[in-house]
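ESCALATION

Customer reports they have been waiting on this structure for their group meeting. Please prioritize. Original submission:
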Amino acid sequence: MKKAIWNDVVLAESDETIVIEGNQYFPPSSVKKEYFSETATHTTCPWKGEASYYTIEVDGQKNVDAAWFYKQPKEKASEIKDYVAFWKGVKVM
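Update from on-call: job pushed to the front of the queue and completed.
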C-alpha cells in the first residue's frame, strides 16, 4: 500500500498506483480531494501531454503546485488519465 503524506496528513493511499519515470501515480478515487485545489499551472511532457497542477492545503499551510495530473494524456499515457503524482516535499512511501 503506497501513501502520499504531507504535513503529517495522508493525501492519497492505494495499492493500485502506476509507476512512470520513478513517480507513483495514485488513482483519482484514492486522493482526498478536500486538500486539493486546481491551479492555472500547466507543463507539457513530450509523450504524456499537458499536465495540470494542484495546490495542497493542510491546516492552513499551502504547498503550491505540489501535485500534478493529466486530464487528456496522449495515447501512450492513457492509463494515467486523472491519476495524481506528487513532489515538493510530499513523501510517497
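Sent to customer with the following note: Residues 42 and 51 are 5 Å apart (CA to CA).
Escalation resolved.
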